[in-house]
Amino acid sequence: MNTLKKTVRSYFRTSTQHVHYQHLRLSNDQEDEEEKEEEETLRRHSTEEISLTFRDLTKVVTADHDYDDDDLNLPKETTTTKRVLLHNISGSVHPGEILAVMGASGSGKTTLLNTLNNRSTGGVSGEILFNNQPYNHSQMKQKIAYVVQDDEFFDTLTVREQMIFIARLKLSWHLHEKHVQLLVKKLNLQKSINSPIYLISNGEKKRLSIAIGLLTNPSILLLDGYFVFHLPQTQV
């Protein structure tokens, strides 16, 4: 794990040098053209209105169990167990709306989000529509952001380094700094921007996860296990 963290930090530093070197080689016309293209891409993502509708979603998982008893000299038997994780779940959410799914632990909230985000497809029946069209991964992957329940960071990076690292994987480099600064301000992360992630609070980690989810200006943001009290005095 330490080797992986060192590799990521090394990539971050090397990539920074490479980006500055590339910047010196680009003409002003190239810079302007690519920056306008990136701004238009972000604007299109942020303003595209998408409605999500799901009808009669059901998910069933099966597991085979082998039983044998050598002491009683009984033949080996295999039984199949079925478990219903989702049963005829329907709902919809439209642009500008917030849909909260509430339930006890183990009731299927994460399974529902995984299904809506096409992370869990086995044993699923029902219908999922985006703007009344079936899910298309190539078209929707940049328009949906899914913030999972467990934070996923390289803890030795600072908040800014983590965001820049992810931004470089998802965006061209022109708006990295500008976009990161905007999200840092909106999610109230200014005080911890240069702090290693392992030193920031759990609440700040939650806000950092959301900021990373918002990097591509998704049309739909799925949050697993997040509540309003994680974002006190913060407007997004």
Could you describe the 3D structure shown?
By secondary structure, the protein is an alpha+beta fold. Among the domains are: 52-141, no CATH class; 149-218, no CATH class. It has helices at 2-25, 28-47, 109-116, 137-140, 159-170, 176-186, 202-213; strands at 52-69, 74-93, 124-130, 133-134, 144-147, 220-223. The protein has a four-stranded antiparallel beta sheet with strand order 2-1-3-4. A two-stranded parallel ribbon has the order 5-6. Helix 5 (159-170) packs across helix 6 (176-186). The longest helix is centred in the N-terminal third of the chain and has 24 residues, at 2-25. It is globular and about 65 Å long.
Keywords:
disordered C terminus; 6 strands; four-stranded antiparallel β-sheet; alpha+beta; two-stranded parallel ribbon; disordered N terminus; 236 residues; 7 helices
- Structural classification: alpha+beta
Distance between the termini: 34 Å
Could you tell me the radius of gyration in angstroms?
Answer: 22 Å
Strand order of the largest sheet: 2-1-3-4
Mean pLDDT: 75
